[in-house]
Every structure is written in C-alpha cells, then in structure tokens.
Amino acid sequence: MGHTSLDKIKALQKNPANVRNLCILAHVDHGKTTLADSLVASNGIISSRLAGKLRYLDSREDEQIRGITMKSSAISLHYASGEKDYLINLIDSPGHVDFSSEVSTAVRLCDGAIVIVDAVEGVCPQTQAVLRQAWLENIRPVLVINKIDRLIMELKLTSQEAYTHLQKILEQVNAVTGSLFTSKVLEDRAVKEERAEEDKEEGDIKPAECPGSEQVYDWSAGLEDSDDSQLYFSPDQGNVVFASAIDGWGFSIQQFAQIHSQRMGIRAEVLLKTLWGDFYLNAKAKKIMKGAHAKGKKPLFVQLVLDNIWSLYDAVVTRRDKEKIEKMMMSLGVKVMTRDSRHSDPKVLLSAICSQWLPVSQAVLFMVCDKLPSPLDMTSERIERLMSVGARRFHSLPLQTQELKTAFMQCSSDDTAPVIVFVSKMFMVDAKALPQNKQRPLTQEEMAQRRELARQRHTERLAAIQQTESGEGNAQSGSTTPATTPGQMQGLPLKAKPEEEEEKETFVAFARVYSGVVRRGQKVFVMGPKYDPAQGLACLPPVPHLACCTMDSLYLLMGRELEELEEVPSGNVLGIGGLEECVLKSATLSTSPALPPFIPLNFEATPIVRVAIEPKHPSEMPKLVRGMRLLNQADPCAEVLIQETGEHVLVTAGEVHLQRCLDDLRERFAKIEISASKPIIPFRETVIRPPKVDMVNEDLGKQQKVAVIHQVKESDTLHLDPSGLVTLTTPNRQATVGVRAIPLPEEVTLLLEGSADLIRTLEQAGQAQREGRTLDMSTWTLDALMVLKSRLEVLLQGRKWRNAVDRIWAFGPRRYGPNILLNSVEGYQRPSVWHCLEREKGEKEGGAKAEASAIRDFDNSVVSGFQLATLSGPMCEEPLMGVCFSVERWDMNFPTQRTHLDSVTEKDSNSLDASVSESPGEGAMAGASHGRLVDCYGPFSGQLIAAVKEACRHAFQAKPQRLMAAMYTCEIMATAEVLGRVYGVLGKREGRVLQEEMKEGTEMFIIKAVLPVAESFGFADEIRKRTSGLASPQLVFSHWEVISSDPSWVPTTEEEYLHFGEKADSANQALKYMNGVRRRKGLYVEEKIVEHGEKQRTLSKNK
Ligand SMILES: Nc1nc2c(ncn2[C@@H]2O[C@H](COP(=O)(O)OP(=O)(O)OP(=O)(O)O)[C@@H](O)[C@H]2O)c(=O)[nH]1
Ligand SMILES: [Mg+2]
C-alpha cells in the first residue's frame, strides 16, 4: 500500500464514526513496538521487510540501544476495510514498570486498547496492571496473543499442546478481567443505591435536565443478572488475534472460517462458532461434533488452523524442503521474490510467505475497527467519571457543566460546539524537527517562486551597491552610525536565525479533542486542577485556577515526524504547540468556563528513587535549574524538588527511569555535565513494643527497660517517668505537656498509609468547617470515611485504646501521615477529627463548637508541634511511621490571668479548659482574652510548638526505636539452571523469597521476592549478568518493613559478646543504614574512625 497522503488523513479526521483511538498495552518485551511496526508498514511508512526489526516508534537512541520503549508515541494510520476507510490513531506505550506513568497518559486519550500477551510468558504483573488501567479508564480492550512462533521453535510444542497452552493463557487473561468486573459490579451497585436515594430526595426533575440519563441508570444490580459475556476475550467473539509479530503473521478465527467454509462447504457462521472449542470434524459423517477432548480427537482449531502453520514452519525453517515449500506456496496462492526464497536465513522466506498469507496488520486492524468503539460511542458513565473531580459528584456540578456532557456524547465538530481538549503529557521536540522548520521537497510552483525571488534580490543588491558607491562621500561626512549595506543586513538575520533555532527545543502537548474543532491560533481556557466551574461561572475575572492561552500550532503525530495542521475536528489525537507557558504536565482546555478539569491521571508507579544532582561546574547552576524545570514538565512521573539542605533532588520511579532522566538532563534539557549522588534511600522511624528476647534469643527480663530510659537526659524542665511519659515545660514556664509514645498495631499503620487520600479529604473538610465553609463530599467519600473509622475502631481494641478513635486529634506528618496524635488530656474536650461526618448525620455540637472556637489557636500549636515531630524523627531525621503520641497532660497558666487571679496560689496552675470556660461572657475577662489572642500568635505559641515537638521526640526515644526500610516486590522468571544464581543474588542483597512456582507448560520458574530498596541498586543488572540475560526482574515499590535489629544496640551479655564481638557492627544493618543517612545529612555520627591504631600501622608495614 502506498503512503497515505496528508489530505487523505485530514479528510478521515472529519468522520469520527470511522476514527479509532487506541493504544497498545502489554508487559515489557511482549512485542508492542514490533507489532506497531507491522501496522506502520501497512501504510507504507516503513518497508515491510524492515517491519519488526526497525522498531520505528522507538525513536530515542537509548530506546533502540536498550531495546525497551520509554515513552508513549502516537501515529495516525489509514485502513481500508471493504468500502469503509478508517483512521487509526495508534499509541505505542512502554511496558517497563518504571514508565507506567506513560501508559496512563496514553490510556487517557484512547477509546480502546490492544492488549498483547506473550504466548510463552503468559499473563505477567504488568499485563495485570495495564488491564486494570484500561478498566479504570473505561476503555475497551482486544487481545493479541503474540510470539506463537516461540511455541513452535523454542518450546517445540506440538500443535495439540500449543492449543492447550493457548487455552490456558486465555483463561488467565479472562480471570484478571473477571476479578475486575466483579469488583466493579459491587461498586456500581453501591453507586446505584446512592443515586436512588438522591433521586428520591430530589424528586423527578432530573431526567429532563440530564439527557442520556437512562443509560446511567441502566446498570445491573448484581452479579447474577449482569451480562459479562461481552467482556471476556474469546476467539469466537472476534476479539482475539493469534500472531507472531516478528514473522509478520496473525489471524483471527474469522479468517480461517472463511477460508475453510469455501473449501469444505460448511457455513462460515458454523465454523466461526466451532473453530475454537471442544469440537472435531467427523470425516465420515462430514459433520462437526462436540467432545473432541473426551473422544481423543483433534480439535478443529488444531486440525484446520494450527497444523497448517506448524507444517509451514516445519517445511520452511526446520527442514528447508524446497519442493514442499513450492507446493504450499501454490496452494496458498503466494508468490515471493527470488531474493527472498534464496536468502540464507529461512526466516526471511518465512515472513515473506506469512505476510502475504496471513498479514498481521490486516487481522489486527480489522479487529480494531470492528470491535473497538469510535469516539462517538463514549459512554455517559465514562464522561461523568472524567468530569467528577475529587470528592465531588457529577450531579452536584452546576447545570451548565452537566450540559457539557451532551457535547461529549455528540462529539460534534460544529462551530457552535464547545471545544474540549485534554492534554495528557508534554513532550519535547527539537525545533528542527518541527514541520515549520523542516526542509521538504519543493513543488514546481514553489521552485519557480523562489527563482523569481532570488532574481529580484540579486537586482536589488546590485542597485544597492551602485547606490552606496555613489553615496560614499555623503556617508563619510554625514551620520556616524555604522551604515550597514543592505547586503550585510540580509546576511545578518540569516546567520543569527539558525543558531537560535538550534538552541531552541519546544514542547508539544500530547492531546485529544473531545468536542468541537480546534483551530490554529485559537484561544482557550486552561483549567487548573483545582479549578471550580461554579466559581468560574460566578466570578468576574480573574478567576482562580483559570488561565487563557493560544494554541499556536497544531500537529498530526506521525511517530518520529510531525505534520502541521490548520484544524483538528473532534475525536482525534493531536499535538499542540505553544502551551508550555500555561501547561505543566497535563491540563484540560476548553472554550467553555463551565468545564471542570478532568480527573487526574492515575499513576500506578510511586516515585521512590531520589538522587541529588549538581553541575560539574558550579557556575552552570542556572542551566541545571532550568534543565530540571524542563524535565519536570516533560516527564509525567519525575518529580523535581529542592530540599531543605539546598540540594536539587530528582525523584524517579526506578533505576531505568532515573537513568533516562539523567541522560535527558545531560543531552537535552540542561546540556551540561552533571553529577548525581548515590540514590537517596528513604527510611521511616518507628517505635516497637519492648522485645522479650535479646539478640541471641535469650530472655531479656527487665534490663532492656533500664537501658532505654537512660537515653533521655532529664533536666529541670524535662521529666521522664519510668512508664515512658515525658513531661516538658516551656522555657517561660507557662505551659506543660506530658506525652507518651505508643507503637500502633501494624494493621492500623497499613490502613492509615493506604487511606492517605481519604484522610486528606477529611482534613480538608475539617479545615473548611473551621473556616465556616462546607465541603460537598460525595456519599461515596462519606461512606468510605465511615468505613475507615469503623475499621480503626475494630483494630484499636483493648484497654489502652479505649475510645481512641474518637479521641484522635490529628494525623501526621503533613496532616495525613500514618501517625496519630491522641487527646488523652483529662477534661479537655475538643471536636474529634470525625466531626464533619457527624454534621452529615445531623448531630448537634452546640457547646463543643463554642469551646472549640475559643481554644482553637493553641490547639493548633499542639498539632503543629506534632507535625514537626513526625516529619523528622530523632534517629536520622526521617519521617515517623506507625507511632501514636498520646498527650496525657496539658496545663497552661497565663501571666495576664495570673495578675488578675492573684488570689490563686502560684502552684495551682490553671488548666486550659478552666480558663476557656471562664473567658466568654465575663466582661472583666475581656482584657485577659485579648491578651491571650495576642499571645497565641506571638512567641508563646512558638514555645508551645517547640515544647510539644521536643516532648514527642523524647517520648519517642523512651521507647525501643527501630528503622523501617522501603521494600520492593519483584517477580523473577528464570529457568531451572539459573535458579541457584538468582537465589544467590537475592540472598546477598537481603531479599526474601515469598513464593516459588513453576509456570505451567514451560520450564520457567516464577519467584516472588521482597527486597529492601536500599539493596536494590544494580540488582536487575546483576541478575541479568549472573543469569546471562535469562532472568530480568522488575521492581515495584510495595511496603515499609521494620528492620528487626536495634540501631543503638550494643552487646551487653556474655553470650552476645561471644556471638557478635565487641564492636558488633558487622551484624547491625540498621546501624549502618542509620549512619549512612546521618552522614548524608551532615548529622553527628557516633563512630570510631581509627580503631586499634597500632595494629593498622603494623599491618601496613608488613605489606
Ligand atoms: N520470537 C518472537 N519474538 C518477538 C515477537 N515479537 C517481538 N519479539 C521480540 O521481542 C523483543 C521485544 O519486542 P518489542 O516490540 O520491543 O517489545 P515491547 O513490548 O515494545 O517492549 P517494551 O516497549 O520495552 O515494553 C524483541 O527482541 C522482538 O524481536 C514474536 O512474535 N516472536
Ligand atoms: Mg516497545
């Protein structure tokens, strides 16, 4: 097929019914880019001989070198199916976990996805992850089972075995979909019930206002009666293609049904139903019968499909049987060029035959056009989901906003339709690669025009020279300004321009139009993530979180190339230039201020690997800063920050991602030499219950307690009681706080960690309530919060935790972390953090409210102290985790009150609640309360914050402290021969194997293990090296784990001395980690630098 012209694509863009926006998703190395190559070749963009080898969409150099995709890139393809012409906007995505954020950016812009599964490896962790992502974004997937040639050539399976194997893979994939579906049905039912309740409240006005609403309510109630048959992958549904992308073939059973129906005279529909499944051909009766397995017959799929392919491979690759090949080619009606048939590599001939017989691009593109939805088929469910940002519900949005849903549904390209565009990422292009600046072959007219221009210029120049020559005398006597000749003037800008352009790289936005027509130079609003359409519709400009920008240029994304466009109609993927000033990473653009920003992309990867970066030459700092800013904009997942220490820190998802970011910084963004520190490994600090045994498993008895308590030095303001309660008085002696640290049960920590977003919403609601606003939370959020509360109640059982959940004062650090501040002050009443939930239930808090307003300011100081204490712990200034600080005493006495209440004895300190209950209403106390007001913003509040922080730190130190390490999980696939080496590497790096099983039907073992992040650097490389590339793990952050050894431990008993020696530093991993962090942060490290000095000297002498 020839190259599709730009005009053709422009025409195709205008018909959204025949546009398909789709992405290719899979686990790493399952063949996405290779398949994309075949599809690209079908459009004549690359030669079909190179398809599969070129990996055209891997345009970066490092992608080609490493052989993995690192970014998602799009290309528009034309496909003609019968009389219909389709436009396929294809996005290839990376499969490596480190780049899973790129997958999110791709999935958002699509309506469908091709999910690829390697026929040998089957469903892998990333396959599950991408299926989940597709599910979350509500896009429909189709399946390609790739690398079937490996079953023939590598595993040497017979066709019958291969069939069983393929069935298993299909089951695996469907099992993942099934579990996603089940959870969704349950969720839907909850939502439906919520809707039903709302409807009851609001009467029946809604259906008229909200078009398309029937569809929303048309949800099935339960698992039993919801139809999920459409959902699963099944060859007879036409949503599965079997392929070998590298050899260029692929088929769906429709194709074979057609081929054989002609040959055997069986109706195609019958074949379609029976080709996949337990059916066989009864040759005598010429009938298709059920029960192939039971009767030991060859299933139809094996007989009619796989056997053909197997014998082709056998003839061409294994036996190289010329005659047989000739015969087969005849019967298939295939002709190949002689240079292919004579080629020394039989694979060349094979792919030449296959790509004519069963071209993979045809099979895949047909399936895509047939099964995947067009932009017109956006479900209202998906639209509502996109527009319901945060905890808001769709029906609480302003009416004008709700009306925009129609625009989405219609996907109209009328001039009256509002423009809606979503930018999912920004990527950088060389200015040279932009179509405006590219040299292209000139048309005949253009050449004539240029010739004419050149001629004109020449005559002008001649005239000018004559003029200057004649006017030389004037110039000398006249103006002193250096008169440049026109000739020079023309020369100057010409010279200056290319240099400028070379320097410049521009950002192009990766975007999709959901409604309206986007035109070049059009002005649109940019909705910030916090933009609220209600505000936008009500306020006069400037509206918060709303900006305006111009789309300077529009591009058609063609893989490595960009083509310039004048306008892009609704339903298409495009590139937009000129947004770098107003869009950071992603954005929602619209001509209507009623549009809310789309929900944020959901990223699966947590950025965890941090490095500090500095330029080789300090003078280049500004360049580095600029480069890092650009990198931050260009990468969806990387984070760039400046730490308190002044270091510039880059946070990435993993080692490979880090490497790519550093390369980018060096070569594109900063263009300077940089040096990166060793990865900064995050730790957490926590306390545990006193251990019962010592390091050699001997019973400890009481001695540990004594050792711990000595760590806190008492002074006149600080008092520690043996039970661990720390009492601290502020320097001005006006306040005393008593704090105790208690380890939280592990499950509670986990729950808090997992509910961070929810807690943040709770905190925001609390904040809003304190400011007298209300935050409209969806019933779903409220329910989730109630569930969180009740789960905490269940987990926090026992005498120590009585009523603890209601007494929670705050979470920290940053107000949503996994630590709790508990109010155990006797007689001090404050609204609980769950207060905003109670409002919904209609409970009255009259008295408490008045009180709360009076003491709020000091209350805040305590919370701030707690936040500071949890943000950095005493061991190595890392955040705390899983610690509960119970405030058991809080006394205040104010100087103002003391003067007023002289009669009260000095010792008898006023508790705060006493002063609060006195202050309102009493005229005489006005002065006092005024004094307090001044105080609470003055130095006293600072002292209180510091006191609370110190008290928390000391309370923390009074308990046995431990470090917590971040852990990765990894799944390693390895053959039996290299298994031992994999274990060796894991053992050396303190990894722990969780599970080991053999993959069915293969010789591969799958090992699941956890590995501390601190030990993970170079792990993947080491595994690869030690196993000669046979095993390659992918590391995903999973959880935090307490390191069991005590960093401050020193041997105390005889046995321990014997076991660990005097220094005991060889065994103490925790101490090593802690000292490492302390050294990095420039904190004091208690270490002997030279030990046994004499011995060292003799040693060096002897050498
Ligand atoms: N045997 C065989 N190898 C294949 C097939 N398809 C792809 N490969 C090989 O698998 C490797 C990975 O292919 P890619 O297309 O780069 O895989 P990918 O899914 O794009 O990988 P990432 O983008 O890094 O996730 C390459 O070495 C291909 O040659 C196939 O059908 N059969
Ligand atoms: Mg790839």
Automatic annotation (TrEMBL):
**Biological processes, Gene Ontology terms:** cytosolic ribosome assembly
* Gene Ontology CC annotation, any one: cytosol
Highest rank taxon of the organism: Eukaryota
Which Gene3D superfamilies does the entry link to? Answer: 3.30.230.10, 3.30.70.240, Elongation Factor G (Translational Gtpase), domain 3 (3.30.70.870), P-loop containing nucleotide triphosphate hydrolases (3.40.50.300), Translation factors (2.40.30.10), Yeast translation eEF2 (G' domain) (3.90.1430.10)
Q: Which InterPro entries match?
A: EFG_II, EFG_III/V, EFG_V-like, EFL1, EFTu-like_2, P-loop_NTPase, Ribosomal_Su5_D2-typ_SF, Ribsml_uS5_D2-typ_fold_subgr
Q: Does the keyword Nucleotide-binding apply?
A: yes
- State the UniProt keywords alphabetically: GTP-binding, Hydrolase, Nucleotide-binding, Ribosome biogenesis
Q: Give the residue ranges for region: Disordered.
A: 193-212, 438-457, 466-500, 901-924
Q: Which GO terms describe its molecular function?
A: GTP binding; GTPase activity; ribosome binding
Q: Where is the composition biased (Polar residues)?
A: 466-488
A family per Pfam? EFG_C
Q: Which SMART domains match?
A: EFG_C (SM00838)
Write out the biased-composition intervals (Basic and acidic residues): 193-207, 447-457, 901-910
Q: Where is the Tr-type G domain?
A: 17-269
Q: What is this protein called?
A: Elongation factor-like 1
Q: Which organism is it from?
A: Oncorhynchus mykiss (Rainbow trout)
